[in-house]
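Quick one - inputs below.
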Amino acid sequence: MLNYLINGISLGSVYAIIALGYTMVYGIAKMLNFAHGDVIMVGGYISFCATSYLGLPVIPSVLLSIFVCTVLGIVIERLAYKPLRAATSLAVLITAIGVSYFLQNAALLIWSSNPKAYPNMVALPPLVIGNTQISAVSLVTIIACIVIMVALTLFTNKTKMGKAMRAVSEDKDAAQLMGINVNATISLTFAIGSGLAAVAGVLLCSAYPTLMPTTGAMPGIKAFTAAVFGGIGSIPGAMLGGILLGIIEIFGKAYISTQLSDAIVFSVLILILLVKPTGLLGRKISEKV
Amino acid sequence: MKKLSKSARSSFINYGIVLVFFLIFQIMLSLGRLSSSLSGQLIPICTYVIMALSLNLVVGISGELSLGHAGFMSVGAFCGVIMATCMQNVIGASWLRLILSIAAGALCAAAAGTIIGVPVLRLRGDYLAIVTLAFGEIIKNILNCLYVGVDGHGLHVSMKDAVSLGMEADGITIINGPMGALGIKKLSTFVSAVILVLIVLFIIQNLVNSRSGRAIKAIRDNRIAAESCGINVMKYKMMAFVVSAAMAGAAGALYALNYSTVVPKKFDFNTSILILVFVVLGGIGNLRGSMIAAAVLTVLPEMLRQFQDYRMLIYAVVLILVMILTNNCNAKDAMIRVKDAVLRRNRSQEADK
Amino acid sequence: MKKKLLAMLLATAMVCSVTACGGDSAGTADNSADAGETTETTDDAATTDDAAAADDGAADDAAADATGSGSLTGTLKLGVIGPLTGAAALYGNAVDSGSAIAVEEINAISSDFQIELNSQDDEHDAEKSVNAYNNLKDWGAQAIIGCVTTTPCVAVASEANADRMFMLTPSASATDVTKGKDNVYQLCFSDPNQGSASAQYISDNGLAEKVAVIYNNSDAYSTGIYQTFQTAAESLGMDVVSVTTFTDDTANDFSVQLTEAQNAGADLIFLPIYYTPASLIMQQAASMSYDVKFFGVDGMDGILSLEGFDTSLAEGVMLLTPFSADATDDKTVSFVGKYQTANGEIPSQFAADGYDCAYAMYAALTYYADKNGGFNVDGVSYQDLCEILISVFSDPSFSVDGITGEGMTWTAAGEVNKAPKAVVIKDGAYAGL
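Output:
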């Protein structure tokens, strides 16, 4: 029982860290960035190459991967999303899917289709309490999650840039009238989101160490689910949603059926959304008449 | 022609496009001028056209983002296959079996649409989208564990494995879990596929231009205003959703009966997204656009085969570029300017004559 | 008005492209050089002809055959269908590269007989696979190596059966691939073969008291083997204590499945799955300090060449596989060397299957040429070639020595006869049992 709980939390923390990036971009740019999962995959490959081929130590290779992903995020935003600023959100969604196909197939050409076994970036002994043990990767992931969540919350609430972000998310036009550079703010959001994706990539691959061009796709969708679960756009919600999703998945597998585990996760999600239609911590949208 | 309203004229143009498409290919097919590659894609093209049309009813006309449309397709596909297999020795005429299978697929998908629609349509926006996605995944997951067989005693269903179906020796396993349905007898033909497209087009166009259709569009444009005019929001939303699901089911049956095998994995999130791409690219709410986009985007990856490894990469780039060109304000302006210039020149040429 | 104009433009564009396409395909029937992914080895083959044939260990026996009484001439157009993109791309690409190496070797034997190879992507999808097959037909393919994966193979096989196109699948192992189709042959073991052989092996050698199974229930290959394993295990009286599953979507966390196996006291876990999830299972079992034996099937092969994988985790893993990359016979060594130079990776069983498929086709044609005093494949329709190949493959005296098995013969039903080799991983390498 306790073991399952711990496994659930460690799986959930991986979802949570991906969901944080999703929810960040959604909250400000109001778009579902389906390419987020693939940026995670790129982050994984960059850090893999940095350690395995360039022989860099862990911290520099993670930093390198964050840097590359941030740049990638900005480039994607410039080329693919920025021209569609005035278009409907569905048009941007489809473009994001195009970007996702592009990244997956580019990765296939660059790194080949053969999977790579990811080196353990967190080579620390597990934490043993009684007869249960928590692996170091899970601990680091959970800690990273909390740190990122707190940092993001502080950033959006306390700094000038963060305030600009919140203003943009409330009302783009009004923000522009107040002298906020909307384009720059959205670009910054993508930069932060992609940087987070790199961290998520490293932690995802450390926890489940196989790396393929399609590695990011499914965790991306799961994390999107987690973000909606917690109330999309809400930073603590993403974390809560991710961890709950992990726990539900593990418990569903352990106590109901391994065959139907996906069905169980998604059924719980639907039930919760029926009770709380904007997710666990989502804001109630008041309707203007 | 003048008596026809604008919408009726537009409807007839749509039928015309489908018929012209049918005639061109049918003539080429009978002359043997069509490559195997294209003739093999005719039925999938029709299937995707139906899928795009039906999704457009939900996304474009009713204004709800659905990410689980492939789920209905799979329900239709597997019900259609079960029907076709059961009727194999009962009904001789293959066209009748095909009609029955498509009807069964449509009915089952409509039932699934009703069950799913009740909770889903209470939600809004992205939350609705995620719940449709969730239902799509649930359907896929359940079908992965579903075993159906038929023998002298009728249908056997199990959620465990093929052995526990407990069939007699002459029984046929119709659906074998993740292996899907195997050994399907091909029933779909190009003619039947085109007829189905026309029927779907007929239903949607009549629905859209009817009183109900206007109510659905009113809800899309302003739910609260529509509600205050006494429109039953839930009823009309359900109408669009269930009709759309039924048509997706019919498309699924048509699709499944074109191949000797069909697996639940085929109808995953990616397929739902693909259909959404057709709808968005063709223009949300624009039926003709959906049809053309579905046909072009189905053929495009096959035409890109000469680029070998770079095929899907180019497909992605084309997708992004088309989205930007059709949705970016500057690009749009440029296109309008080019068009005006062309029109002006034509006009001046006519004037010269 | 604007929309209408755009729609008309698009429609005309589509019609034009369609007619253009139709025109093209009529053209390509005569002029094959421009279409598809052709391995242009014809030119180099002419120059390196003598040298290559002389020092090429793997091609030696075949070369001897070719110079026999009736020689084989002409150019064979061979199509390959497999997933070259998407989640299953690793299997398709391996088969593609493996068969390309074989074709290069065959083309170097004699300039009289050449093979032109054309690989088409099916994205591991039945619909795309049929499209790829039709595309190959337009190109003028005379026989097909494929499909690599099971579901697409079933779909293409029924098309090919109706068209009378010969198919030799390197790795689609389900019985439904060949069932009722006389033109489809398998080079790999069929699922029942593997499932029951595994059960037999575990029970004969008393490897375990209690057995657990973890399989992928969203995958036809894995479920197929599990079902036959289960049947065989029951009839052998084996104690299967835990059966758990995962899907492609949940293939990262196996803690629940492993805990259940551990709680049930299983001392051996049977993994009828591919090596990518298997490597995760081993890793997680190790981190749970659950000491258990693993038994795999041919999909497990490749685990040792997984880049960056800690091979010590796979220590003691037993698997049934027809191929091991570190076998020391000349053929395997030569193939592995070439594959590594070309792709920078150690070949998996899929690559070896692709390699053997191309050689089996070649051997079949040489065999036929020998018997009939020469055979020119130029201009032979795929229907005719299909009947010829069926007659050879179903001939019990026709056998092929490949790197995935010595003396492979085929039954008329299309299944291969070869001995499954059980190997154990010892010190990071395969060792025979």
